[in-house]
Amino acid sequence: MKSNVGKTDKIIRVLVGVAIIGAGLYFKNWWGAVGAIPLITGLIGWCPLYCPLKISTKK
Asked: What are the sequence ranges of the domains in the chain?
């Protein structure tokens, strides 16, 4: 598993993930669980969707 998420992309993913989770908790909605996807991909630095599309934001 080679890292394919750059620094800026990681920061954006983590912030978006936390915001979605926070909104889900605030509105008491299960959709907040969707925020785990960008949060986890941002923390580990690897996006499974980038692989088949041959995208990398890492320099």
From this structure: 7-53
